[in-house]
Write a structure and sequence with these properties.
Structural class: mainly alpha
Shape: elongated
Low-confidence stretches: none
Strand content: under 5%
Order of helices and strands: HH
Mean pLDDT: 86
Helix content: over 70%
Oligomer: single chain
């Protein structure tokens, strides 16, 4: 197969600068994390009209999402720290 030159813009990788890519990823992950925490606070302040089992299942799913977003942020922070060395 012949080598095909990469186009100047690749939708899957909007920048060729790895540091900028990590910073953009961190910003998006932080926004996701903040939004999940906001939603969690809203649900705690004013729970929807669901059965106790449904409410607990939803809260657990949201806790799992918050935990996953937190781990993702931690991983991105580690990648940024390694990239700056």
């Amino acid at each position: 197969m012949a080598d095909v030159p990469c186009p100047p813009y690749n939708i899957r990788m909007p920048t060729r600068d790895p540091h900028k890519l990590l910073m953009d990823t961190h910003s998006r992950a932080q926004s996701l994390f903040d939004d999940l925490l906001r939603q969690q606070a809203e649900i705690d302040a004013s729970p929807p009209a669901l059965t106790p089992a449904q409410l607990e299942a939803g809260r657990q799913a949201l806790r799992n999402s918050v935990d996953a977003a937190s781990r993702m942020l931690h991983s991105i922070d580690q990648a940024l720290a390694r990239a700056q060395k």
